[in-house]
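Exercise: predict the fold of this chain.
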Amino acid sequence: MKRSLLAGIACLALGAQSAQAQTLRIAMAAEPTSADPQQYAAAPNSTLHNHVFESLVSLDARLKAGPSLAVSWSRRDDTTWVFQLRQGVTFHNGHPFTAADVVFSFCRILNNESELAVSYSSFVRRLTRVEAEGPNTVVIGTREPEPLLPADLSSLRIIPSNLVAARPIAFSVADNCAGAGQPWPTLAQFNDGSAAIGTGPFRMRSFGRSGVTELSRNDTYWGPKPHWAEVRLQPVTAAGPRLAGLLAGDHDVVEAPATGDIPRLRSNDAVRLAVSPTTRLIFLQLDQREPAPFVNGGAAPNPLRDARVRQALSLAIDRKAIADRIMDGLALPATQFLPEGMFGTLPGLPTLPYDPARARALLAEAGHANGFALTLHATNNRYVNDARIIQAVGQYWSRIGVRTEVDAMPSNVFFGRRARREFSVPMGGWAASAEETLLFFRTWMTTTNRDRGIGGSNYGNWSNAAFDAAAVQALTTMEEAERGRLLREASRIGLEEMPILPLHFESAAWAFRRGLAYDGRMDQQTLAQEIRPQ
């Protein structure tokens, strides 16, 4: 059936598409969790939010930071940055954009009760000052030097201060901007559209949590006007129905076509493809708690606390086979935590080795010659072939005597449970917003410290003094050569200790109808403003 559909697409009539030339219909591979741009940092959310909202700094398709609502920035010293704001910008409700909106937005992040996994507040809590110096200048102070501040700001979207009847607000982490008595926009208000107001190229007409989200062009947008008068974002979480919808003319663009379909799509003149390398690492996070809820039925001791066991689990996985057979070549087997050549990586490393005999020997050395039992948890609709990957890992581990069960679930269930730290070995995916290992280490591997805004996604509770000594010092090191040395040392320790098992880096793919052009993005977002007629 699939072959006949692919063969038949060349015969599709384009008349209906021409009639809808001003409407772009995008089938998303995963659904956004909400229309709140400050709720959870996940790629489906960013895809939606970056149509409607903007940040002080933007990232281009290759993750290079550039102007957005700020036209320029400079440093007064290592902990004080000055941002000059774009003038003449208005929000969708007509409210003029000023520095007061930046202060309000950062304060609302600190007071967002619906935020999951402290995606945004962990960064804002590292700030000491967000202050308006007149309507067009914002001064941001950091507790310590922050070499990647501009890239970090790209994820903090700005909302208008007149969403609520606000009293004057001064930024202060200590008392959450005195937020206890201040009204703040709620998750429900963003989802019903009343608070989903930004400065972006599209306005949100309606948000469909499990259905279609409708956007309309913002004709007062300060930047280049997008081609599309309307955009429809529809989550279709299974690859087969997404492709079938493209072939039937129901979608114009689909995210993440099945990797097995790529060779045939390349040879079909009626379909166009975009493939982009990404920094998205697919990985397993190993629980260091005692006891771990899904290891040996929650009984102590937890074998994952032993580095020999963690190394054994890594050695049991054939990453090249996963990349070749499950990902159909659309993945780069991992050697470390970001692709080699990015800042802070170790040069010349081979793909992490596959050696099940050595894995069994390490288990025996650690006192687990008869293995142990655990459950793997993963999404089944978020990352490319995620359910197949986690099944393969379970089979590899079973072969070395680790009795493994697999529980794959929809992403909207998985992420909430993971944020509550309910799992012992979750499979995750994460894409860096800058080409530097510092971001991954800061978020996923440093010892959790809420006050410093680090380790917010260290769900396994791993803590290593030597790793922290290198990675945490790198956080505040502005001199690049020294920061690079520290990050390479942290990489070395991370690979020896293996609290996180890197699997591979996804390549992102899009399929779309003839007559469109899209170059793709390293962050895997699908942005209608970058899709153009051809």
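Check your answer against the key: The two ends are 30 Å apart (CA to CA).
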